[in-house]
Amino acid sequence: MLELSGVTAGYGHFTALWDVSLRVAEGEAVAVVGPNGAGKTTLLRVISGLIAPRSGGIVFEGAELAGHAAHDIVAHGIAHVPEGRRLFPGLTVVENLKMGAFRPSARARYRESLERVYTLFPVLAERQKQRAGSLSGGEQQMLAIGRALMSQPKIILLDEPSLGLAPVMVLRVFDLIRRVREEGYTILVVEQNVRQVLKLVDRAYLLEVGRIKMEGRAAELAEQDFVRKAYLGV
Amino acid sequence: MDPIFLVEAAINGILLGGVLALLALGLNLIFGVLDIVWVAYVDLVMVCMYAVYFFNVAFGWPIWAAGLVSLAAGALLGVAVHLLIISPILTSAPINQFLATGGLLFFLQSAATFLWTTDHRTVRLNLPSYEIAGIFLPATRIIPFAISILAVIALYLFLTRTYIGTAIRAVSQDRDAMSLMGASPQRIYIVTSAVGGLMAGLAGALLIFQYSVHPFFGGQFGPLTFMICVLGGLGNMVGAFIASFIMSEIIAIGGVVISTEMGYVIAFVIFIVMMFVRPGGILAKRE
Amino acid sequence: MSRGRLLRGALLAVLLVAPFVPMGGVRQYVLHVAIQIFIWSFIGQAWSLMGRFGLVSLGHGAFLGVGAYTTTLLWNFYSLTPWIGALLAVAAAVAIAVVLGIPCFRFRVVGHYFALVTLAVGEVIRLLIIAERDWTGGSLGASLKTAGTASGLWTLQFADKRVFYYASLGMFLAGLWVWDRVDRSMARSALQAIGEDETAAASVGIHVTRFKLGITVVSAALTALGGVLYAQYISYVNPDTLSGIGVSLKIVFAVVLGGMYSLMGPLVGTALTTALSEGLRIAFGLKFLGMADTIYGLLLIIFIIFLPSGIYGSIRNAIRRRSGASKTAPA
C-alpha cells in the first residue's frame, strides 16, 4: 500500500534521512523504532507531506506522493497523528473531531465517523464540549487518534504516541491502538518505547541516524540480542 | 464641569467603541491566522469610505446600497491584497512584512490623493438626534453602533458555528496541524482575508456616517487600531473587543475633560503603560 | 585591502571637493539633495544599530521629532543656541528611550509587540506636537526664527548651503564611525546572541536588558542629532515629516532596501530612495499631485517583495551562489 524507496530528506543543510526504503502492506501494522534523533519524526513528516524529500519516491496505492503538499496527501487517505498530538487547544473535543473530517469526502460521512470514534473512545463522547487544551495526556492522545480517524483514512501514521504519558496511560494508549488496528486500519507507528510497540505490530524497522539498520517480523526483532540489550534493557 | 457632559462623553465612547471593535477584530482575525499585521488596514477602510461616498453622492445610490458596495469592495480588496502582497512575503522576516504593508499604506494614501485630492468628503445624511435626559444622542452614532454590534455577533457565529469559521480558528492555533486535516492553507488565508476585508468595508460604511473621508484618514485611526489589537493581545478576539471600548472611553472622556487630541495622547500613553503591566495584552495570563 | 582603502580615499576626496566643482545653476539643487542623503543616511544608520540586532522600531519618528522640535522651539522662544539645544534634545530622546526601554526589555516585549509599541510612541509624540499647537504650531508646523546677522556657527544657521553640506557629510562620517565601533565591539557579539536567542544569551550571563538599553540609547541619541541638523537646515519643522508612522517607515524602508546589516547599507538605500522620489517628483512635478508618491509606494512594495535582503544582501547572495555552493557543516 505504502512504499518508500531511497528517500533522503532533511532540514536546511542538515540531512535527517539517508536513502530510506520501507513498505507497509494493506492491513499491516508496522513500527519504526530507534533512538532519539534517529529521524523517525522526519520520516512521518516526509510521508504526510510536511517536508518534501530531496530524493527518492513515495508511492501510496500507486500514486507518487513525493513533493506534494500536505493537504493534498491527506486526500489520498493518509492520516498523520503528529508528535505531541498537535490538537487545537482552544477548540472543543467535538470541534477538533470536526476538523479531522475537513475533506469533503470525509465531511459527507461525518456523522458515521463521529459515532465510530465515540464508540471506540467513550471518554471523548463524555467530554464533547470540553476544551481540548484541558484534557489529560491520555485523553488528548485519544482525541488525536480519533481526529485522524475522522478523515476516513486508509493508513494512519502515529508519531510517538506514548510520548509524555504516564506508564499506566502508555499501556492504555497502546491498547487503544490495538483496538484501532482491529477495526481494520493499516498503521505505521514510530516509537521509542520499543518493548510495547513490538508487542503490537506485525513488522518493524530499526532506524538509526537516519538509516534503516534492520527490518523483520516484530517477534524476531525482539529476539535480537543487541536490540534486547540496547532497547529492552535486558 | 457639568456631570452631564461626562455621561454624554461616556456614552459616546461606547458608541464609538463599537465601530473601533470592527476595525480591531478585522485586523486581529488576519493576524491570528496569518501572523502578519496589515499596517495598511485602515487605509483599506479609507478606500471603502470613498466607495460609499461616490456611490451615494456622485451616483445617487441610497446609502444602504452604497454600504453594500463598500462591503463588496472591502472583501475584494482584502483578497487582492492577500494574493498580490501578502502571499509573496508569507515566510519573510517580520520586518519585511511590516514594510510590504507599509508600502501599501503609502501607495493607497498617495493614490487617493492623486485620484480624489486631499479635499474632505462627507456624506450628507439627514438623520435625527435624540435627547434623553439632557444627553444628545445623534442617530449618526447610534446606527453605526447597533450595526457594528450585530456584525460582531455575526462574526462570532461565523467563527464558532460554521465549518470554515472553526477551521479559521483552528489555523490560528496550529497551522501545520490544519494542513494535516486536508485544509489548504492558501484557501483559508483567502477566506480570512476576505472576511477581514469585509469588516473593513463595513467599518468604512459606518465611519462615513460620522467622519469625513480624506486620503490620510488612515493616519487618524490606523495607529489607534494597532494599539487596540496589541492591548487586547494580538490575535485575541475577545481582548480586542474589550480593548476597543477601553480605548474609546479614554478618548471620549479625555476629549471632553481636556481636548480631543489629548484624549488620544492619554489613550496611547495608557496603552504604553499597559504594555509593561501586561506585555501579552490585558487578557493574557500572568507568567 | 589597500585597493579598497585607496578607493575609499578617492571617494572621500571627491565628496570633499564636490561643492566647489563648477556645475552651473544646478549646484544648489545638487547640494540640497546631497545634504538630504547624508542626513537621512545618518538617521538610517542610527536606526540600523537597533534593527540589525532584531530590535525593529517603527517609532524612530519620536526621537527625530523630539530632536528637531527641542532645538527649534528653544531657539524660537528663548534664543537658546542650538548647541545647547542639541544637548537637551539628545537628553530628551535618551529619556524617552530609557523610559520606554527599561520596561520593554525587562518584560521581554519583543517582535511584533515591540514594533507596535514603538509605533505607539512615535504617534504619541506626533499627537502631542499637534495637541500643543499653541507653542508648537500644530499641524502647520513651525519655522525656525531666522538669526539674521547672527547667522553662523553659534546659531547653526548658514546662508551658504555648502556649510550644511560639510556639516552633514561630517555627521554622516561620524555615524559610520560609530557603526563601525559598535560592529567591532564586544557589544556586537552580545547583541547578536541576544537577537538569536535571548534566553540562551541570558543563561550565559549576558545582561540582556543592559545591552538592549544601551544600543537603544545610542540609536535614539544619534537619531535626535539627525533631527537637529535637519531642522537647522530646512528651517522648518512639521509633525508629519518629523514624527509619526510615515517618517518612521521611510527610515526603515531606506535601510532595509539598502541592506540592514552592512556599513554602507543605509547610505545605499537612502541614496536610492531619495533619487527615486526626486526623480519621480521631477518627472511628474505639480501636474499630477500624488502620482509621484503613488509610484514610489508601488516601487517600495515591489522592491521589498523581490529584494528581501535589500540591495547589499541580494548582491552578496548572488556572489555567494556564483562562487559555488559552500560546503557548510550540518547544523
Structural class of chain B: mainly alpha
SSE succession of chain C = HHHHHHEHHHHEHHHHH
Low-confidence stretches of chain B: none
Q: Which structural category do the helix and sheet elements of chain C fall into?
A: mainly alpha
Number of DSSP helical runs of chain B: 11
Rg measurement of chain C, Å: 21 Å
Description:
The complex is a heterotrimer of chains A (234), B (287) and C (331). With 234 residues, chain A is an alpha/beta fold. Chain A has a single domain (2-231), classed as Rossmann fold (3-Layer(aba) Sandwich), CATH 3.40.50.300. Chain A contains 11 helices and 10 strands. In chain A, the strands form 2 sheets. Chain A has a 6-stranded mixed sheet with strand order 6-7-8-3-9-10, with helices on both faces. In chain A, strands 2-1-4-5 form a 4-stranded antiparallel sheet, covered by helices on one side. The radius of gyration of chain A is 17 Å and the shape is globular. The mean pLDDT of chain A is 86. With 287 residues, chain B is an all-alpha fold. Chain B has one domain (3-218). Helices cover 76% and strands 3% of the residues of chain B. Chain B contains 11 helices and 2 strands. In chain B, helix 2 runs antiparallel to helix 3, helix 2 (41-58) packs parallel to helix 4 and helix 9 packs across helix 10. The relative contact order of chain B is 0.20. Helices cover 74% and strands 1% of the residues of chain C. Chain C has helices spanning 2-17, 27-51, 61-78, 82-106, 111-131, 133-136, 161-184, 186-196, 198-203, 208-234, 239-242, 245-258, 265-284, 291-306, 310-322, and strands at residues 142-143, 236-237. Classes of the chains: A alpha/beta (234), B mainly alpha (287), C mainly alpha (331). Chains in contact: A-B, A-C, B-C. At the B-C interface, helix 4, helix 9 and helix 11 of B face helix 4, helix 5, helix 12 and helix 14 of C.
